[in-house]
Amino acid sequence: MKFTFVTLFQNIVEGYFQDSILKRAIQKEILHVAYINPRDYSSSKHNKVDDSAVGGGAGMVMNPQPLFDTLNELKVKDKDVHVIFLTPVAKPFKQNDAKRLANKPHIAFVSGRYEGIDERVIEKYADEVFSIGDYILTGGELASLVICDAISRNVDGVLGNSDSLSVESFETQLLEAPSFSKPENYENNSVPSEYLKGNHSKIRSLKLALSECKTKFFRPEQLLKHRTRKSYEK
Ligand code: ADE
Q1: Closest atom of ligand 1 relative to the 112 alpha carbon
Q2: Cα(197) to centroid of ligand 1, in Å?
Q3: pTM score, two decimals?
Q4: Ligand 1 centroid, distance to 87 Cα (angstroms)
């Protein structure tokens, strides 16, 4: 699977792929990462990529021309590339999106900086537009990395143990039960004794109860969804 990052700041993005799971996936050629800088496509004298907002308003907006030319070329090279824009003015990215998008052969992430991107670029080129949460970042790069990471771990072969995908938070409506590692007793604090006894059906029901507790505390609306779904299934 290929990811192309359309960004003015390649350095911000690049570092993320230089360690750990995604580095290994690139070495194994399961993932491929490319970068395009829209500044290289600017036809203005000083390679300008932004200007003040037409109609007033604070800050600078990314001009259409460099992005039109960048994305045109990208589409000519690969007409099936799936183009995603990152902006806080969009639908929220969810785990279901991560799973669905893991089946695309090529995704391009277009990151805005400054006050955003000229809307005509988004209208012409966006296959999808995502926000990663109700807060404003200084640019879309972090958001594109968050989404790229969440998609990548759903691509076959990226995670060492495919089991770790099956019982995660958001695969159901419930948050995951707490996990513990060794030692079983640390600073006088033991892991729940049921986890130690080896009765897997009891461990499963304790984990379910703990999942419900966590969900009730942190995401009560999710617990409601879970219970509604359960009562439909009966
Ligand atoms: N760019 C700035 N803030 C963002 C957000 N919350 N999500 C996606 N892109 C962004």
Answers
A1: 1
A2: 46
A3: 0.93
A4: 4
Q: CATH: 1.10.1270.20, 3.30.365.10, 3.40.50.1360, 2.40.160.20. Which one for 169-233?
A: 1.10.1270.20
Tens-binned pLDDT, residue by residue, of the chain (234 aa): 999 999 999 999 999 999 999 999 999 999 999 999 999 999 999 999 999 999 999 899 999 999 999 999 999 999 999 999 999 999 999 999 999 999 999 999 999 987 899 999 999 999 999 999 999 999 999 999 999 999 999 999 999 875 567 667 776 789 999 999 999 999 999 999 999 999 999 999 999 999 999 999 999 999 999 999 888 887
Locate 231 and state its tokens.
């009562």
Ligand 1, atom 9: closest residue by C-alpha: 87
Structure tokens at 76: 């000519």
Strands 128-131 and 185-186: what pairing?
Answer: unpaired
Question: Ligand 1 centre from 6 Cα, in Å?
Answer: 15
Contact 6, 108 (CB under 8 A): yes
Centroid of ligand 1 to alpha carbon of 86 (angstroms): 6
Task: Report phi then psi at 60, rounded to 5.
Answer: -105, 150
Return the domain boundaries, the chain: 2-152, 169-233
Please tell me if the CB atom of residue 215 comes closer than 6 angstroms to any atom of ligand 1.
no
Chain centre to alpha carbon of residue 124: 23
Is the shortest distance between the CB of 232 and ligand 1 below 6 Å?
Answer: no
Distances (CA, A) of 100 to 103, 154, 175: 6, 9, 20
Atom of ligand 1 nearest to the CA of 138: 2
Superfamily of domain 2-152: SPOUT methyltransferase, trefoil knot domain (3.40.1280.10)
User: 123: CA distance to ligand 1 center in Å?
Assistant: 18
